[in-house]
UniProtKB/TrEMBL annotation:
Protein's GO biological process: defense response
Coiled coil segments of this chain: none
GO molecular function: carbohydrate binding
Region annotation Disordered: where it falls in the sequence: 350-431
Domain Bet v I/Major latex protein, residue spans: 426-576
Pfam family, one: Agglutinin
Natural source organism: Linum usitatissimum
UniProt keyword annotations, A-Z: Lectin
Protein name: Amaranthin-like lectin
Annotated ranges, domain Agglutinin: 1-168, 186-343
Keyword flag tRNA processing: no
Ranges annotated as biased composition (Basic and acidic residues): 369-428
Length: 580
């Protein structure tokens, strides 16, 4: 793969540009670091990089990246650091040296991302040859090093922290300003049906009793006409009095407006009795439609004005999976926040037009049935005989409909509906534990990710060393095997089915052993939230969903076990923090 000589690299995670941090602007020891910044004409000079192919045949396909602002090559900051900085004056092609400047561009599968930038020539990951790690964007809330370039991943990141769109420098330098998100001045229809671009399902109101009652969920799998006819899938768009293209969304089933479910959550539910345009209140019902450039359909993102975040599909195997959640600060590269808007009124009119055409056609079925003899024998005699010229107009109209409308002769087994075997109904059982931890939100979330090491250390009498079977143990798709010293379960294997670093939520799916003796499938989700008040500690929610529970299982004992586990881990973290 040959890259342009001069490039700008745009992050597929948040659409910002890799830029050199100017020494005068450096903070907290970040002079010379490569970080992400918003594209701007005044800072574009920091975003230009030169791509130089390796001179060695042994490293064919690898490149050196040179920052054009300070004319230095990208390399590790030091022998003990994985930060990538523009800090070295010379090319180093010896992969055994920490100062090696070689990167291997790896093309990203187009199925893994959505890219509407016309100037993009490719989407790649840069694999640091010496470390054997991918260069990625470091993400840590509150850290001054967040958004800096860091060679910290030994496998591709599913959230595209390590994926960059390659743009020719010349295509941007001519205009002086990178292309920004497309914001067409479009108007949404009065009544709409909303379809997710991620899972191709329609948004519907959850009318079922339970903890998701009143939530909105992308779970309706009908075709377009059926979705339009579904009373739970129709929404009304009302223009906001404050203008600026803002709208309110109202569920037509219960006549309530979409808003946050409560002051501490980012779930979007249909629960507001009236509009609220005060964007300082959690009850604000304002949404900003951000239109996505597409020539074949109306695609839009809905940005929740009060939170400043995009409403998206919550991608989880938990009981709240596919529900609407205002969780993304930036557009989601996997299209979790992109919706196709279907004009409810237009589809209804098209259906009426179609029915009108059918009503205009002659409908001889009933009259002809009454006029004709009933016995099948006479019907056969009335049919035209082969070989004779027949006038086309003399043929009976709508023969098929007549046959379907007439009673079938006894014994016509071909037409008789066959009894279908009863389908097994899937039963879901779920429960949750709320735990208030002394540790900070970041500390406890870090422990969740490091649980492969934390659990055997915090509970040495219960857990044996945990082994990573696939992946790195903390990214989606990773599989680990847990062995126990005591208890009824000897070992189990579980896979990370979903992980959201920003919102600090992770879901494990059991694939072997453990609770699978009591359920057909079993998944647990851990979410770590800040406390409602601004005091120390955090709130931890542990929940599970099991399908088709078997009799005789002590669910209370399971809840007690996990409550004790969470408390023990919290105590372990506090003890070690005090020791440090």
């Amino acid at each position: 793969m040959k890259l342009p000589k001069y490039v700008v690299l745009k992050s597929m995670y948040n659409n910002k540009y890799l830029s050199y941090r100017d020494e005068e602007a450096g903070e907290d020891g970040q002079d010379g670091f490569i970080h992400l910044s918003d594209p701007d004409a005044t800072t574009l000079r920091y975003s230009k990089f030169e791509v130089m192919e390796s001179k060695s045949n042994a490293e064919k396909g690898s490149v050196h990246l040179k920052c054009s602002f300070n004319n230095k090559y990208l390399a590790r900051q030091s022998p003990t650091s994985w930060w990538i900085t523009a800090s070295t004056d010379h090319i180093q092609e010896d992969r055994s040296e920490w100062s090696c400047t070689l990167f291997k561009p790896v093309l990203v599968d187009s199925d893994d991302y959505y890219n509407d930038d016309e100037k993009s020539t490719a989407v790649v990951r840069f694999h640091h040859v010496e470390l054997n790690h991918f260069a990625c964007v470091f993400q840590s809330d509150g850290s001054p090093f967040s958004d800096c370039l860091y060679a910290g991943r030994d496998s591709p990141n599913l959230n595209l922290f390590d994926a960059f769109s390659v743009i020719k420098w010349e295509s941007l330098s001519q205009t002086g300003n990178p292309k920004r998100a497309n914001k067409k001045k479009q108007v949404l229809p009065k009544f709409v049906v909303i379809k997710s671009r991620y899972n191709r399902k329609y948004l519907r109101y959850r009318n079922e009793e339970g903890e998701q009652h009143g939530f909105l969920q992308f779970s309706l799998e009908d075709d377009k006409d059926a979705a339009v006819a579904n009373r739970y899938a129709k929404f009304e768009v009302e223009k906001a009095k404050s203008g600026n293209g803002l709208v309110h969304l109202k569920c037509c089933h219960n006549k309530k407006y979409l808003a946050r479910s409560d002051s501490t959550k980012w779930w979007i539910s249909a629960g507001a009795d009236e509009v609220d345009e005060d964007d300082s209140k959690w009850s604000c019902t304002l949404f900003e439609p951000v239109f996505v450039d597409d020539s074949t359909a109306t695609m839009v993102r809905f940005r929740h004005v009060q939170l400043g975040r995009y409403a998206c599909l919550f991608n989880s195997d938990s009981s709240f999976g596919e529900c609407l959640y205002a969780g993304w600060k930036d557009p989601n590269p996997n299209l979790l926040d992109v919706c196709t808007i279907i004009d409810w009124g237009k589809v209804q009119q098209e259906d009426e037009d179609d029915h009108g055409d059918e009503d205009a056609k002659p409908k001889p079925v009933k009259n002809q049935e009454n006029a004709k003899p009933k016995p099948a024998k006479n019907q056969e005699d009335a049919k035209p005989k082969p070989g004779k010229n027949q006038d086309e107009d003399a043929k009976p109209e709508a023969e098929t409909n007549q046959e379907e409308a007439k009673p079938k002769p006894a014994g016509n087994k071909q037409e008789d509906p066959k009894p279908q075997p009863p389908q097994k109904r899937e039963v879901n059982e779920s429960d949750q534990v709320e735990f208030t931890a002394i540790s900070s939100q970041d500390t406890f979330w870090g422990a969740v990710f490091a649980s492969t090491k934390i659990l055997p250390n915090a509970l040495p009498k219960r857990y044996k060393p945990i082994h990573i079977m696939r992946g790195d143990g903390f990214s989606q798709g990773s599989i680990r095997e847990i062995s126990f010293i005591q208890g009824d379960v000897e070992k189990l294997q579980e896979k990370i089915a979903y992980v959201d670093h920003e919102n600090k939520t992770i879901t494990w799916s059991l694939i072997q052993g453990g609770m699978l003796t009591h359920y057909d499938t079993f998944k647990i989700t851990i979410s770590v939230y800040p406390k409602k008040r601004r005091d120390r500690g955090c709130s931890v929610n542990w929940s599970y969903v099991g399908t088709n529970p078997k009799p005789g299982f002590d669910k209370d004992a399971l809840m007690k076990l996990f409550t004790e586990t969470l408390k023990t881990v919290d105590d372990y973290l506090e003890t070690n923090a005090a020791r440090d």
